[in-house]
Specification:
This protein is of the alpha/beta class and 256 residues long. 47% of the residues lie in helices and 15% in strands. It contains eight helices and seven strands, in the order E-H-E-H-E-H-E-H-E-H-E-H-H-H-E. It has a seven-stranded parallel sheet with strand order 3-2-1-4-5-6-7, with helices on both faces. Helix 4 links the parallel strand 4 and strand 5.
């Protein structure tokens, strides 16, 4: 842990924290002093991230849940309040991608992408915001995407979902700012995660060639999960105390 823990005493939830950006964010938040609820649909994934946090001297609780369901989201918040005594930070990170256009996307795939990427944020906020409002403060960080700010090919449902995340973030910031709750989105470019590698498989492309193309941006490389996590920590901290309703792009210059 760092010498000056910027999140000392804070209580956090990170969804989709079994791997990738979610795991990196959970670990980074814990390294700065937060107690972290590691939420994932994979029991093994959640446990693995929680164990990494505890091995480094942090405090974590692994929670298995499907955040597209209201009952699970309500349970997550209730368990965190029971175990940690409150809730200060919510990182809505759970997400999936289906690489296909309108013709190739099934109705079931569309519904699942929207449920995991969009409905989950609504549900987690529905149950988390009252807890934060009662305390008079809170920070919510939603994982958007560069494709939530511009279009992308063969990713209709994903682009639609992430566009919704970005604008839903703004609406949440407007609604709950008077209660002392800040709401922002972090919008990564291509980041070296299992989900990115799965896109090559979905598109039937060579993985090495696909990853090389993903690095075609001004910084000439993909992002690292830890680099997105650093932005999440900043948004969660008092260093960003006057930042709300923003769409922070962390993409190595890809949109530029």
């Amino acid at each position: 842990m760092s010498a000056a823990l910027v999140l000392e005493g804070k209580r956090a939830i990170v969804t989709g924290a079994g791997g990738g950006i979610g795991a990196a964010s959970a670990i980074a938040l814990a390294a700065e002093g937060a107690a972290v609820a590691v939420v994932d649909i994979s029991t093994e994934g959640a446990a693995a991230t929680a164990q990494r946090i505890e091995a480094a001297g942090g405090r974590a609780a692994a929670i298995t849940a499907d955040v597209s369901g209201a009952a699970d989201c309500e349970r997550i918040v209730r368990e965190v309040v029971d175990v940690f005594g409150g809730l200060d930070i919510l990182h809505n990170n759970a997400g999936i991608i289906r690489r296909a256009d309108a013709i190739g996307t099934t109705v079931e795939e569309w519904d699942r992408v929207m449920a995991v990427n969009v409905r989950s944020i609504f549900l987690m906020c529905k149950f988390a915001v009252p807890v934060m409002a009662a305390a008079g403060s809170g920070s919510i960080i939603n994982t958007g995407s560069g494709w939530g700010l511009k279009g992308g090919g063969n990713a209709l449902s994903y682009c639609a979902s992430k566009g919704a995340v970005v604008n839903m973030t703004r609406a949440l910031a407007i609604d709950h700012g008077p209660a002392g709750i800040r709401v922002n989105s972090v919008n990564p470019g291509d980041t070296d995660t299992g989900m990115l590698r799965s896109e090559a498989q979905q598109l039937g492309e060579n993985e090495d060639a696909f990853l090389a193309e993903s690095a075609d941006r001004p910084l000439r490389r993909m992002g690292k999960p830890s680099e997105i996590a650093a932005a999440v920590v900043w948004l969660a901290s008092d260093a960003a105390s006057f930042v709300t309703g923003s769409a922070l792009v962390v993409d190595g210059g890809g949109i530029a």
